[in-house]
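Suppose a colleague, Dr. K., hands you the sequence of a protein chain of 392 amino acids and asks what its three-dimensional shape might be. Before reaching for any lab equipment, you can write down a predicted structure in C-alpha cell form. Begin with the sequence itself:
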Amino acid sequence: MQPDETDNCISGINDSAPTGLNCRAGSPDPASDRAAWSRRGQATPPSTNHTRRIQGSVVLYVLGIILLTAVLLTRFIERAQSELLAEARHAQLPALRGEAYSALQVSLAVLADYIAVDGGLRSPAQGWGDPLAYADYTPSDGLQVAVSVEDESALLSLPDADAATLLELLIVAGCTETEAGRVTDAILAWTRRDHPPQFAESDEDFFALSEPALLPPHAPLRSFGELQLLPAVRDVLLDSAGDWNEIGQRFLASISLHPFTRINLNTARPDTLLALGLDAAAILARRESAIPGAATDTAFQTLADATALLGANAGAIGRLGVDASLLRITIVTRMGDRTFHLQAVVQPGGIRPRSTPTESTAQTPPSTPRTWTSKSIDSPFHILEIRENHGY
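The predicted structure, expressed as C-alpha cells, is then:
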C-alpha cells in the first residue's frame, strides 16, 4: 500500500472500526469488512439512517415535552390571572359600596336641607340636582363618585293612571287609537282586578291557553319587562327582535311604576302634560323663563301660579302639584375600571321648615342617631326601593 493510499484509507475509517478491516484506497473489500465486523460480535456495521432515526425521535420527544409544558404553563397563567382578577374585584367591592352609601347619605342630607330652607323640592333649578357639589363632597382616595337626582313625579304613575289618561299618553307616543286601546286594555286587565277585558287577548282564559300558561297577577308591575308578556304590547311597542321600538321607548320614558297622586308641574315631561290635556308648549316656555339661583328659580311656586295657563283644563289641577313627591337617586362609584351602581327611590316626608331656636328647644338634649346600616338609613325620607349593580 502506497503512503497516499494509506492516508486515504485511514481518513475513511471510523475510530470504532474493528482491527483487520480491509481498506484499499478506491477498492474496499466488502467480504473482508463483514468478516472483521463478525469477529467483533456484530453481523453488519451500523446503518447511518438508523442512527439518524434514533436521534430524530429523541429530538421530537424533547420538543413534545417542551410543547406540553408550555401549554400547561399557559393554562395555569390564564386561570391564575382570572382568579386574581376576581379576587381583586371582590376586594374592591366593599370600598365602592361603602362610598356609594356614604354619597347617598350626603345626598339625602342635602335634599333635606333644601326642603327645610325653601319649603320643598320644586325643581332641580333650585340647586339640588347635584347634591355632592352643594356639600363640597370629596370621595376617598382612588375613588370617583357621580350622583344624579331625578324627579320621578315628573312622570305619569302607572298604578294610579286612569284608562283615559293612559290611552291619551299612548296616542301622544305615536300609537293609533286602536293600538292604544289594545295596549291600555292589556295593561289594566293585567294589573287591576276590577277592569273587565275589552279584547280577547287580554282575557285570563287567553293567558291560560298560552305557552307558557300565565295568570294575571292583578297587581302593580314590578318591572317594565313584565309588559313584554302581553300580546298587545309585543305587537305595538316591540320590534321584530323583541326590543322596545321608538313608540315603546317614548311611552316608557313618560311613566313610573311607583304610585303617587300628584305630578310635579315644574318638572313634568311634555308627553305627560299632553296626556293630561294641558298646553305643554306654554308650560315649558314658562319654566324656561325661571332663573336658577334667584327667587324665581322655579316657574310655579304654588298651583295658583298655573291657573291662568290651565284655562279650560282647570279640572286637572287636582292631579298636579308644584313639589317633587318622589325622587330617583342614581349613584355610580368607580375605582379604575371597576364600577358600582346604586339606585334609590325615596319619598320626602316628615320634614318641617327650620325655625329660630327658643330657650326651651335649645336646652333639649340632642337625640342619639340610629346605628347606620345599608338597610336602615337614618334620614327624613321614606326609602321605597334600593337596587345595586356590582358591575359584573
